[in-house]
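Explain this protein:
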Amino acid sequence: MTATSAEPTRRDFLYIATGTVGAIGAAATLVPLVSQMNPDAGTIAAGAPIEVDLGPIQEGQVVKVFWRGKPIFINHRTKKEIEEAKGVNVASLPDPQPDSARVKQGKDQWQVLIGICTHLGCIPIAHSGSYNGYFCPCHGSVYDTSGRIRSGPAPTNLPLPPYEFLSDTKIRIG
């Protein structure tokens, strides 16, 4: 007669220990394999949206941030700058576009532009030029405070990045 014991034997312990070590080894092998398939952090950062806190930006100040390797100008325009931008005869512009099409409705004080000259890709200087907007010293393109081309060789206005207001003091670019 054979007696079966309900007590675990040394052999049972060895089976469980071997299985556990094998499972840990398999997991340790798979984690780096799966991790290497994820995109590089630089790749993620290159296309990821950025959030910008507008609270510290003083009225009349232009702040430069970078998104996808491009300089983005965020201009907290004064009432005078807004009125001047709205008062321009749009038909007289080389690339006609009203100021209202270049800002978010109800947020006229915030002008968000990609700070790359549309002539040869230089970076303009803020609060410069004949219209106190942006001036590209390389070839003389002059933009107003709305980023519209007023004179010089640049063919079009400064481009607008995709952006949205998350709150009154925060935007997401991208």
Remarks:
- The longest strand covers residues 70-76.
- The radius of gyration is 30 Å.
- Residues 22 and 48 are 39 Å apart (CA to CA).
